[in-house]
Specification:
2 strands, globular, about 375 residues
Length: about 375
Amino acid sequence: MGNTVTCCVSPDASPKLSRARGGGGGGAAPGPDRWADAYQAAAGGGGSGSAEAESGDSDPGGGGPHLQHISDREFPDDLALESNPSDHPRASTIFLSKSQTDVREKRKSNHINHVSPGQLTKKYSSCSTIFIDDSTVSQPNLRSTIKCVTLAIFYHIKNRDSDRSLDIFDEKSHPLTREEVPDDYYKHDPDHKHIYRFVRTLFSAAQLTAECAIVTLVYLERLLTYAEIDICPSNWKRIVLGAILLASKVWDDQAVWNVDYCQILKDITVEDMNEMERHFLELLQFNINVPASVYAKYYFDLRSLADDNNLSFLLEPLSKERAQKLEAISRLCEDKYKDLSKAAMRRSFSADNLVGIRRSNAILS
């Protein structure tokens, strides 16, 4: 997956080019000249740089021809900042924008019909009681995170712009089960519960973590943006499966092998899994990097999605044991940053008293 020659230099590695030449699959694909220009521009940054790339000049260190790393490559014009939430922390996530239409309609309908919100189920902290959930950006709650991720996938399918797809993800061409796929399989949108059961089964059987679910959603939106396709009833299972497969290998140190997924999905072959993974990576242009800022953005947008759809995270009163545990974690972090601050102030001992950091003790009763 880290082959810089394949992903950064050779335009023939892109499945878009083979699709444009062979005519397979759906969606628009840029021509070979456009990709070649993009790679040359990324390698040289201008006319002189392109000439150097074409002449095959070596790097100053004498280590052979210069091969640019994928992290230094410029993106093509059609992958602008505002359309790449999976790459840039300032770009809005696609699933949250797609969900806002339904949220506004639901609020408007409740206002017109004077629908009462009913009994308030959300808990609020007071002076005597503090309610806290067990989900944080570094350790999300697995069940709640899977619910939010599958709800985001549901809104992707429901509010899709069109039905652009590729043959490798089509369930009719590559079925996951031996059951016959109905002829009108592409007409019926799956509901949230159906998507949740499918994802929960995979995560439970493979023992995947909640962080892996968030990375799965990042890869899914990156695929839709890069490949210019839509997630729809005909391809959502294979796209989600491919994203989970890739996210588990990138995130977990001991990743689940492709053959292990064949034990979960009894009727799929390991050759099919390998082919789908290879196409998924090529469509992502081998960009599997997920910055911490992008991960945090997706986590908090998922919490916003849960709040808009009344999917509240489980809140429990802060107990004495939980408070002591949180205090111990805080002390570890405080000691860590205290050592870092001391190391940073060694250059000016005379100013230690001026730049010292004031800390106040928290009282938990």
